[in-house]
């Protein structure tokens, strides 16, 4: 039967079903919600995070590809701290996700958060050498950028 549930309904934190599926790595569910049921791929929670940011943060590259590619999610969306999906992926060392966002979807590799920290700075700060190499080498991130403290 048809129940006409609201696929964009949110909980107290502003989370949609799509956000939960994206964060938990459920690609088929993401595709069903975003494709079949037209869920809003750019909906934001109370902290400004989108499903794409949540997927990138946890390194779910297949979901990043589904959201950014198939479902045209905004790769430059920022959360309340000014962090993009690329910045989140880099800070956590998810190199494959970084390569997808920067390479396939042309995400801005020099985007900075509210503190002026770029993906490259956060990858370096957290010791993610492979991610640093991808950003600085493959994707030509600015190696001379500095945060608000000049670091």
Can you tell me about this structure?
The chain has helices spanning 17-23, 27-36, 51-57, 61-70, 85-91, 95-104, 119-125, 129-138. The termini are far apart. α2 runs parallel beside α4. The mean pLDDT is 95. It is mainly alpha-helical and 151 residues long. The chain has 8 helices and no strands.
Key words describing this protein structure:
about 150 residues, mainly alpha
What is the fold's blueprint, element by element?
Blueprint: H1 17-23, H2 27-36, H3 51-57, H4 61-70, H5 85-91, H6 95-104, H7 119-125, H8 129-138
Shape: elongated
What letter string, H or E per element, gives the SSE order?
HHHHHHHH
**How many H/I helices?**
8
Provide the structure class.
Answer: mainly alpha
Relative strand content = under 5%
Uncertain runs with pLDDT below 50, 5 residues or more?
A: none
Mean pLDDT: 95
Radius of gyration: 16 Å
Percent helix among the residues?
A: 40-55%
Total E-strand runs? 0
Ends distance: 59 Å
How many strands, what sense, and barrel or not for the largest sheet?
Answer: none
What can be said about this structure in brief?
This protein is an all-alpha fold. The chain has helices at 17-23, 27-36, 51-57, 61-70, 85-91, 95-104, 119-125, 129-138. The mean pLDDT is 95.
């Amino acid at each position: 039967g048809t129940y006409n549930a609201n696929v964009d309904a949110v909980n107290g934190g502003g989370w949609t079903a799509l956000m939960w599926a994206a964060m938990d790595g459920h690609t088929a569910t993401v595709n069903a919600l975003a494709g079949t049921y037209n869920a809003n791929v750019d909906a934001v929670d109370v902290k400004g995070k989108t499903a794409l940011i949540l997927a990138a943060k946890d390194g779910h590259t297949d979901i990043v590809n589904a959201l950014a590619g198939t479902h045209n999610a905004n790769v430059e969306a920022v959360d309340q701290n000014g962090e993009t999906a690329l910045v989140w992926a880099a800070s956590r060392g998810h190199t494959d996700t970084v390569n997808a966002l920067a390479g396939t979807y042309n995400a801005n590799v020099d985007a900075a958060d509210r503190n002026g920290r770029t993906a490259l700075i956060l990858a370096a700060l957290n010791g993610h050498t492979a991610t640093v190499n991808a950003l600085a080498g493959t994707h030509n991130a600015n190696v001379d950028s500095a945060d608000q403290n000049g670091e």
